[in-house]
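[agent] plan:
  1. take the single chain provided in the ticket
  2. run structure prediction with default settings
  3. attach structure tokens to the ticket
  4. add a short note for the reviewer (M.T.)
[agent] executing step 1
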Amino acid sequence: MKVGVVGLGYWGPNLVRNFLGNRDVKKVYGCDQNVNRLKHISSRFPDVQLTDKWNDFLNGYDLDVIAIATPVATHYSLAKAALENGKHIWVEKPFTFRSKEAEDLINIAERKNLKIFVDHTFIYTGAIRKIKEILDSGDLGEVLYYDSVRVNLGLFQNDVNVIWDLAAHDISILDYLMKEDAVEVAAHGIANYYDHENIAHISIYFEGNCFAHFHVNWTSPIKIRRVLVGGTRKMLVFDDLEYSEKIKIYDSGVIINSKEGIYDALVQYRIGDMYSPRVDQTEALSLGVIEFINAIKKDEQPLTSGYDGLRVVKILEAADLSIKNRGKLIKLS
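[agent] step 2 finished; step 3 output follows
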């Protein structure tokens, strides 16, 4: 296969490296309007053919795949042009800035029998795949809550708020892990410095009795990447900043012996052992590349397809609408 990567800033070089490292990729091309980025790629990967002209890139190299690692506002136009020109597409998160754009791209891909891969990278990490295995096994019991914190003193984005930047990761993880469908979203936040919110709290309600909450923040003095999952049998903590014990499972819970009245209820707390399962350390991006290429070869949907990207965008849209309306509850269609 011949693969082209458009957008060679922060994430583009990682895509170039991983596509180059895949045995099914014959040649990698790169495109960016920034000449300094082209020079950087040329120094690191001299075999990559580079251009600063999008039209030449799109039409001149007989590409099979185009990977898009540009600002989200450009995803739709670049992805649509690539699909219309018969290319499979890899699109960075979030998939698009509007759900209608995502739906249009999916329709084009289906009409042309092309594949869409949305780079929800965390789903390919050993930790998230292990958590999925644990939840599917029923070891935690029925999931009651999902609580996520992703904060740091980070890079402000000039085109999106903190929800589209940081929460996109966590919502894609939640969408992958949960069996129930999200039905309602509410969000609160504030823009302290520029037009885009830099801190936000998002609540997601599911079918049944499950609730998820996210805290995202560009202006925290410390970096936290932590998820708590509470089940009826056990509880799980995932700390992405831990090196050796990223996942810890606690045999702890709450036992209610009576429901006759809240003041009469006898509540007991069960505190048991903790164990930490082994987590695969294979680079997530390399596994994503393998997944995408195999999906093309086998003519099947990849694990993180356009449909998955669409569900995440719908939740992001709803959170954005809610935050602009002071936390109004938004139903998901």
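[agent] step 4 note for reviewer: Residues 131 and 137 are 10 Å apart (CA to CA).
[agent] ticket updated
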